[in-house]
Amino acid sequence: MFARILAFLLLLLGLIACSDSRSPPPAGAGSYADVVTRTAPSAVTVRVEDGVGSGVVLRSDVVVTNEHVVKTNRQVRIRYADGQESGGEVLATDPLSDLAVIRTERKNLPAAEFRDELPRPGDAVLAIGSPLGLEFTVTAGIVSGLHRTLPGGPQVELIQTDAPISPGNSGGALLDSAGRVIGINEAYIPPTQGAESLGFAIPSGVTLNVAEKLLSAGKVEHPYLGASLGDLTPEIRSRFGISAERGALVLAVEPGGPAETGGMRAGDVIVAMKGEEVGDVQDVQAVLRSSGVAERASVSVQRGEQRTELTVVLGSR
């Protein structure tokens, strides 16, 4: 008798648990509505004669977008979240990073907040833009990966996301859950190529650096190391017996490139560059952004148990 009563109670508890799991979340739970409301005024639509894209307010009268959105146009139309429009002048573009800056006729625009550091895989993100001309559309997803490259795409490492990105999203903001811009949406791989939810964005650190140079000098020189790098995770350290605790792992070097010419090898771990400690790939990128083409850069690498000092003459893309 006791066993039958116990079985009945367990069944009842199971039904209650199943019912609870199907119940809707509390009102407002998981909503990004407040973030969207706060950040939408810094999102714009960029229209050219033969297409439409998106943009982000960088300064009170400057918008940043993709170079492939404006193409060779020097005059564009900007549409704002409040429904107003104005003209815009393309000040400068950089095809290698696929970025462009536009001066808007309208002033006193609310600049977006940019987050310079990279997000982490798994972080929640929002994409705001005008896919297929549907202005100020919001999609959600996560950061799927970092340090991605696209054949024929911009010559910078990209953020990968599964937030839906479509034609017209290009140049728009990829936001973190706090509403900070972590990237400028760049491209997606369509389902016709066997892909599903594969989108890419230019990191904010790269965007800010390139935009400032475009505004100050009208062009950008891109110093590069000529090495493919990866973060040094505990799993990689254990698997390959790497003694360095922090640094950027050299996955490959470009034949005849600056890194190889300077003596760098695949398997090296960059632990310092130009006197700055290197904890990850982002640190190397930060040093490169502040460096000049043809500059002689000191690089310390951990090679096995030995620390080796190299000098690399940075190249130009």
TrEMBL record:
Signal peptide: 1-19
One Pfam family linked to the record: Trypsin_2
SUPFAM superfamilies: PDZ domain-like, Trypsin-like serine proteases
PROSITE patterns on file: PDZ, PROKAR_LIPOPROTEIN
Lineage: Bacteria, Bacillati, Actinomycetota, Actinomycetes, Pseudonocardiales
EC assignment: 3.4.21.-
Protein known as: S1C family serine protease
SMART domains: PDZ
BP term (GO), one: proteolysis
Gene3D superfamilies found in the cross-reference section: 2.30.42.10, 2.40.10.120
